[in-house]
DNA sequence: GGGCTGTTCTACAACGTTGCACAGTAGCCG
DNA sequence: CGGCTACTGTGCAACGTTGTAGAACAGCCC
């Protein structure tokens, strides 16, 4: 049915292998031959059969990006950036949605789709430090996020503590003294919530403010609805606060909604800053200050690392952890105009050996 | 290196074909044999080599979804829905971002990635009615959106005119008399802008309101920024209006931002409704009324149609156009509480034959 | 008991491509 | 002019799977 190399070879009067050589850019081919083959390809509308090539070369040219959900803007924008970066390097991305469920995240590492692609960029949300063993895999893997540290894989993460601290200090620099944080996850040892809450504490300390448990509010998961509820409850409880640090932008947008509903002026009565700097933040009412964690750099770095691993043949290079620079972007919700008011520098370091584990 | 069927066969003491039969659920296998094979698969950690299977079966189990950009919430949510629907049916989705460029959209229909997948769900934005010829392809194709009508392919689209008319009538029912529309695309014959603007005109007519060109504002492309600008200019121009119909939610959110910046109360002074009902709409400040075009149904239908085409072997079935029901969701921006205030019914009909074209 | 149907398993030959090895030819150096 | 290197092109044998065809055997009906 479909046109194969054989047909092209016949038409161009060369061997099938020569067609293959032309298609693959093998240099030792006479210009005239090359042109004849290319003409035949054009005339017949020949396309390489990827399945056959993949079988032969043991490569698919595909990589998987596993994220919780595309309908969460942060992950949609991350996916956009990863696809673009991969595209520029000649790779195609297959997206897997895990819904942040343990089962689906485990499946991503071992399931039936695993072998479809040459490597995996994985942003886990359900799996955590107790599941380190699952991450010892025999295929190229780049881990994103803050759920898992020390796994035997390259890791691109954020400057969470430093950035959260900077965000808190930013609120303090406006003269706010009762700074609330929403999105805390009580009792969690690892993950963005723990790290950012830690940064919040450090920020308070550095600003000379005391830590008040009444100002630390849970919100699970990090959605607009839970952010709205957290702030709503805080208002209903009669807690006194003049600033809110929302641990991500979805929470912040929900908080904004709740504050508005309660007729609280932002930033007049309450200053607000989020985290992630999603596109929405810029167009919220009022425009939302946020922490830009360096998303594009994260995507680019993840693709670079993964492609490097896929290409590596011999001795496994040591695993690296990369942390891009992050930035505090001040907008109306903290009384500013959209300028960068602070940069936290990242860097690259080797991954510490993971503790042995059964 | 990797475990193959051959290894499993050897270990289980059966032929390689029997392993294949077990893996593929062929029924005539003794229970004991099946168990032995499954045990061997388990012990060796065998996984089917997809490239080999794909080569042999001429199927990849992949479908492509081509959209402009994932960072646009509407498309992110659409992608989410398509991936979920495909997943449930055992298919894997590969996303292609076109950036709404002609070149990339053309490439989607014929480029090097085309043959990687068994079919394509395509939401064009740059290609239009003049490019109908490009859509005569020899692979399963489902078209989404309003750019192209009459192409020889299945088509899932929205109830644009009816829904836009209903949205306009909704604003009129609130007693608004100066209803502006933003996002018009002057001179465009096809596409969402033209259809929704048409619905707007129909709505005005039915409400007994006159059409005022000063109330029809361009915005290209449909982004928050252009929506904000359109409303900003209208305010600067001193145009009198008491309601805005934004042709999509991004425009509406931008409009909301601009109205807020100009201290115009929504819905007090100006009522606002968008189109698409993205997640953001619910959490905007104030919550945004919108038209829910039936996104989940669109995604599900698109996948169903495509899978059906892929599976079809013999005579090509006639192409269908499917229009899901759409709904007007009233929220704060039109003084309501989130209830559905209107339904426009869709349906299925055969695609009219495309005009012959060189 | 001959022929039929139903069950269980297997051998063989592809699917379309590329890696490897090698056959030529031509040019160049000493 | 012998031998070396640089080109240019080809044939063969995989890569790992599944479709087709059929062997072998049992049970059943007439």
TrEMBL record, chains A, B:
Organism: Promicromonospora thailandica
SMART domains registered for this protein in UniProt: HTH_LACI
Gene3D superfamilies: 3.40.50.2300, lambda repressor-like DNA-binding domains
Regions annotated as coiled coil: none
Region Disordered, residue ranges: 328-358
Keyword Transcription: yes
Family annotation (PROSITE patterns): HTH_LACI_1, HTH_LACI_2
CDD domains in the record: HTH_LacI, PBP1_LacI_sugar_binding-like
GO molecular function: DNA-binding transcription factor activity; transcription cis-regulatory region binding
Keyword Transcription part of the UniProt annotation: yes
Domain of life, source organism: Bacteria
Name by which UniProt lists this protein: Transcriptional regulator, LacI family
Domain named HTH lacI-type: residues: 3-57
Key words of the record: DNA-binding, Transcription, Transcription regulation
Pfam families hit by this protein: LacI, Peripla_BP_3
């Amino acid at each position: 049915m479909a046109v194969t190399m054989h047909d092209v070879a016949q038409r161009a009067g060369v061997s099938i292998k020569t067609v293959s050589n032309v298609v693959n850019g093998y240099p030792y081919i006479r210009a005239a031959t090359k042109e004849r083959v290319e003409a035949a390809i054009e005339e017949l509308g020949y396309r390489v059969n990827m399945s056959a090539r993949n079988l032969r070369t043991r490569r698919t040219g595909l990589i998987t990006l596993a994220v919780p959900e595309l309908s969460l803007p942060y992950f949609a924008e991350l996916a956009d950036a990863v696809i673009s970066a991969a595209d520029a390097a000649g790779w195609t991305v297959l997206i897997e949605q895990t819904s942040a469920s343990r089962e689906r995240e485990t499946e991503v590492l071992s399931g039936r789709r695993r072998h479809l692609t040459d490597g995996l960029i994985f942003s886990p949300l359900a799996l955590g430090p107790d599941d380190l063993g699952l991450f010892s895999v025999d295929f190229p893997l780049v881990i994103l996020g803050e759920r898992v540290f020390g796994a035997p894989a390259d890791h691109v993460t954020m400057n969470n503590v430093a950035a959260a601290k900077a965000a808190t200090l930013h609120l303090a620099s406006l003269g706010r003294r009762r700074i609330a944080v929403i999105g805390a996850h009580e009792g969690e040892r690892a993950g963005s919530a723990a790290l950012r809450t830690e940064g919040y504490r450090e920020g308070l300390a550095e600003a000379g403010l005391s830590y008040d448990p009444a100002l630390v509010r849970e919100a699970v998961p990090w959605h607009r609805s839970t952010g709205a509820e957290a702030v709503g409850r805080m208002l209903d409880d009669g807690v006194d606060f003049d600033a809110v640090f929302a641990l991500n932008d979805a929470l912040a947008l929900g908080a904004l909604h709740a504050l508005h509903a309660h007729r609280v002026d932002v930033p007049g009565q309450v200053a607000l800053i989020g985290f992630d700097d999603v596109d929405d933040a810029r167009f919220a009412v009022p425009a939302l200050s946020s922490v830009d964690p360096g998303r594009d750099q994260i995507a680019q770095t993840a693709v670079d690392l993964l492609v490097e691993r896929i290409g590596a043949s011999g001795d496994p290079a040591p695993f690296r952890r990369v942390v891009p620079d992050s930035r505090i972007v001040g907008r109306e919700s903290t009384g500013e105009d959209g300028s960068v008011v602070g940069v936290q520098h990242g860097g690259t370091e080797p991954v510490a050996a993971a503790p042995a584990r059964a």
